[in-house]
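[agent] plan:
  1. take the single chain provided in the ticket
  2. run structure prediction with default settings
  3. attach structure tokens to the ticket
  4. add a short note for the reviewer (M.T.)
[agent] executing step 1
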Amino acid sequence: MSTSKLRPSRDIAGFSLVEADLAALAESGAHGSLVDRIFTLVSSAIQSRKIVTGVRLPSVRQLADDCGISRDTAARAYDKLVAHGLVESRRGAGYFVKAAAIRRVPDRAPPQRPSLFRPDGLDRTTALRLRLQIQRHEQPAQSRSGIGTLPEDWMDEQDIAAALRTVARGNQRALATIGDPQGYLPLRQRLQLKLQDMGLHVDPAHLILTSGATDAINLVALSFLRRPGEAVLVEQPCQPILVERLMSVGLELLYVPREADGPDLEVLRAHCINYKPRCFFVNSTLHNPTGMNLAPHKAFQLLKLAEEFDLMLIEDDTYGDLASVGNGAVTRLAPLDQLQRVIHIGSFSKTIAPGLRVGYLAASPERIEWMATYRALNCLASNSLAERTVYQLLSQGNYRHHCEQLRARLTDLRPRAIEQLQKLGIRTAHEPDAGFYLWADLGKDVDALKLAHQLLSQGHLTAPGILFSLAHPSYMRFNIATMLEGAGLPALARALGR
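[agent] step 2 finished; step 3 output follows
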């Protein structure tokens, strides 16, 4: 109904709203739905104490009749007020202003932050705090060379919006059911075709959709690594969230150094002989943080070791869609092994949008059946709306084109980023041909974590090597998509005295 018909309620005094407020709402040309505008008006009145605690609001019928709006509009406005904790609905009595809605936190000085460094050495919580800031990067920063995602303006916003509209126009009754614990079947069928392109032949029944790669790793740990003290192999360096997840359940982590062509297999063999680990978590393509790829000869030797020592390989291919394309460009374990000893993990969070949490894992029928059981017990179903959105992007061909554009932009930036680091006397351990990470040594005597803390106080977010490996205290991971923006490199140069 037209907002011109909105008129003051005769019981508006019970609202403690003045007539002028409703008149202004009726005459305003403000944008937004009538529900949103009523919500804004009433919530502002509650927060400003024009409506006092405990006041009974007009009924839906009375508000609709007195203001000349539909009852549906009035009901939805009240529902939104309830959802925001401003109003409560009492069965058989009506709607009342909640006492908690108008509480005010007294102004006080923020608590003084404890020093991140102790005189006797490194505070053990420093790395965790910095990692959380890198992961969330909620506060604005002058530069963000340390973040683990692509910049916000690199997202394909137009195609994502179109996919969301298509999902919204679809049959929403599917949301009335829990759905398949393994995830949206059409997306799993689309993933079957995608994985076939890399040489991995897997039935949709042997795929599980997850809320990103981290959720997939959690599912693997929950399903197969439940005994405290059990030995598990991880690469060094590796992503910190993997280490924290495995240590949180009391697993014993054994580190395997990452070389230019893959993990150090001699160290891996020694660990297998001495500790009999059950799993090895490995990046085959665009290893985080080094950007290295697994060489074919290392892949075959690793699979032979896995067979010799009955080792399960958890292959994290989160960045795989940013890898170079073409025959022999990258080597993955899952296509070589066809999921006999490999669990393959992928994700769309790095390429589509970090907030659109959709990942997947592929495994043998026996392992999938076991993991699906745990999935159903701990998470009744995955994110159906996000999965349907990703399905639309993949099925329309938009995603393939988007990844091509991402690879092209990164290819353009990479040599310039390496050149800028070299000018500062910073040596890159490896010059990757794809991805958005550079792993670089700041210098033998540089404490990268202390430097990162200093730069953070100036508004520059960096990723020191100690977050990824205690053996790399002088290293930093640089995001080439963000490191050339802002004043981050000049600030780093000043901090290094270069």
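[agent] step 4 note for reviewer: The two ends are 67 Å apart (CA to CA).
[agent] ticket updated
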